[in-house]
Amino acid sequence: EEPGPASLDAAVPASAEWRLGGDLGRRYAAVSGDRNPIHLHALTARAFGFSRPIAHGMWSLARCLAQLGSRAPDSFTLTAAFRKPVLLPGRVRFAAGPGADGATLFALRGAAPVDPPVHLVGELSPPG
Predict the structure, then answer these.
(1) Which residues neighbour 106 within 8 Å (Cβ) at sequence distance 6 or greater?
(2) What DSSP letter does each residue of 41-65 carry, written as one string?
(3) pLDDT tens digits, residue range 24-60?
(4) Structure pTM?
(5) Which of 89, 100, 94, 92 lies closest to 124, judged by CA?
(6) For the segment 98-126, what is each residue's pLDDT rounded down to a tens digit?
(7) In whole angstroms, what is the distance from residue 51 CA to residue 41 CA?
(8) Is 29 in a helix, a strand, or coil?
(9) Taking the CB of residue 124, how many other CB atoms lie within 10 A of it?
(10) 36 sits in which H/E element
(11) Using only C-alpha atoms, what is the Rg of the chain?
(12) DSSP-based three-state secondary structure for 84
């Protein structure tokens, strides 16, 4: 089994909240060319066991990296783990904090006030 990123402590508060529209999957598909049916419409997502379309994992990861902005070093190693799908439309919260040995940990969580699901965890660490 591949080692995953360290998890950000759940007590680290969110620094951003994003409202994700129901058309996010279609807009991402138009840009990326990835037209996987689980991202496009409720009807096609249901055929694969999802109640609603889900956000693309690469969109979620890229949005987290964009939020880190200048906190991300010029060069880094990225490790990420996708834990639970983000249903669309929806709301998510982003949190980040320091990790061991100069790393930056981040997480994308649901917006529920109690026990929100963790959708993605990641770690930026110095190269090498």
Answers:
(1) 8, 64, 67, 68, 94, 95, 96, 97, 121, 122, 123, 124
(2) -HHHHHTTT-SS-B--HHHHHHHHH
(3) 999 999 999 999 999 999 999 999 999 999 999 999 9
(4) 0.92
(5) 100
(6) 999 999 999 999 999 889 999 999 999 98
(7) 10
(8) helix
(9) 23
(10) none
(11) 15
(12) coil
